[in-house]
Each structure stands twice: as C-alpha cells, then as structure tokens.
# Entry
Amino acid sequence: MEDLELELELQPVGGDDDHMMRQIENGSFFDGVPEDGDEAGDPAKLSRKQRNKEAAKGSRQRKKEYVKQLEGKSKYYEEECWKLGRLLRCFMAENRAFMAENRALQCRLQNCVCDANVAKQEPAVLSGMHLKP
# Structure
C-alpha cells in the first residue's frame, strides 16, 4: 500500500498576502462571516465568538514572544559556542607547547642521567681498578 501525499497550494483570492495576514492576525478577517447560520446574532454565540477571537489574538501574541525569546536564546548559545571553540583552540595550542617542553625536559633529564653514569665510571677506569694484577 502506497502512501499518497497531497500537496495544496493556497492562493489568496485578492492577491494581497500581507493585507490578508494582517486581517487574520488582528482578528478582523472573519468579521461579518456568519457561523453555522447565526445571522440572527445570538448574544451567547456572539460573546463566545468574541472570547475566541480575543483568545486567538492572545495566543498569537504569546507565540510571537516565545519565538522572539527562542531566537534570543539561539543567538546567545551560538555566540557562547563560538567563544568556547576559540577558548578550546587556545588550550589545545597551549597543551601542545607544554607537551613539547615536557619532551625537551625529559630528553635533557635523560642526558644528565647518562652523563652522571659516565662520570661515575670514568674515575674507576682511570685509576685502573678494573684491571687485576
């Protein structure tokens, strides 16, 4: 069984997307459009309709604020990531320098130990103690 996808392209009738979006956002797009035959203007239905309109407007406003807040957080974390990456590169360079210095010091230490062993052996060789008469 194949899943079929249906793509719909919605085009505004008047051709003015911005105007229609502003009407939807401020809640005036559906003004004057009767719902389920309520042309008579039942006060309870009108009241409910008004509350729904206000709730939708509040919901859109909260969504805008939330998106703005998320964008702010995203910008902060991107900057923080960039700073931490730069700091990490500095620490890695410093670590490489310390490792090179450590290898050089170990080499010098090894040479000192070798020189000290040779220095201990030289007097014995020169005095002839290693020779048996």
About this structure: The longest helix spans residues 43-127. Residues 61 and 126 are 97 Å apart (CA to CA). The chain is about 70% helix and 0% strand. The chain has a mean pLDDT of 79.
